[in-house]
User: Fold this.
Amino acid sequence: MRDNRLVRQRLSQVTLADGTAVSYASVGEGRPLVYVMGWLTHLELGWELPAERALYEALARGCRLVRYDRAGSGLSPATNRPASLAFELEQLAAIAATLDEPFDLMGTSMGAPVAVAWAATHPETVRRLVLYGGWVRGDELSSPGVRENVLGLIESHWGLGSDVLTDIFAPDADRSTRAELARYQRACSSAVTARELLALSYRLDVSDLLGQVRAPTLVVHRTGDRAAPVAQAEALAAGIDGAQLVLLPGRSHLPYAGERDELVRVVRRFLGLPVARRRADGLTARQREVAELVSEGRTNREIATRLGIDERSAEGHVERIRLRLGFRSRAQIAAWWRDQLG
Assistant:
């Protein structure tokens, strides 16, 4: 089996005209897929999170996945420039300039309206556009009171604020995984930057740009997303001519939290990239991951932590594997997996 530790991301940096430095990472080879990430990111720490890394590796098969830390987040140094859509587009322009060819563009969460703005104003650069967990108007994500409370909490108590936001972003993850994600957010940026970028996400409004998007577009969203109401996905799809809307089950806003396999399949199919077929044994890619971990003697809690899902989901996967293969115990699943390895 492939050893994921052999997969390496290539780190580099670009500099804007005013001297702002933006760090970016590339994984894989082939046609570029530029991935505009959400609120707070860290190219190195995110790569160390098993669930997040698994998402990037799955997307990068057969193409070159390019992601970057926006200024003040992760490996990109802090800046005195205020957060704005124009500044976001400058950073994306610097990344695009390294490619010298049209690319597929995927925006997630806050990155989705940024990707819309880019596709609308630079149509010649975008082959296909994917929007996950995005919105048209940030001021419709929640009530003004809720927004002010969240921003105030980040400013006054970044630790508690990161905990609250993680509960919203990844409710399907178990407690230990949510704690890890909260620590990850705090490691990505200062409280000042976190507040400023979240405030920008609430200000973003691309309603006047949707009609200018010409690239074939996929809008994909989880129906129970607590951070971005599904109505925003419907508005995105309705405003972009010919856009496809795919709604997936789940509550997590983070694309790598919860069930990510179907999300990857939907995105890769739309981009024209090979999609893994279901194996003759009838197990999904996620179920085969679980079966491998069962063979290692992992408990449901350990499986959940490893895959970034909650313990009940892990238990459900084990039960479905057992039923699919006609087994009565975890020991039989483990023995079957070892036989598969030959």
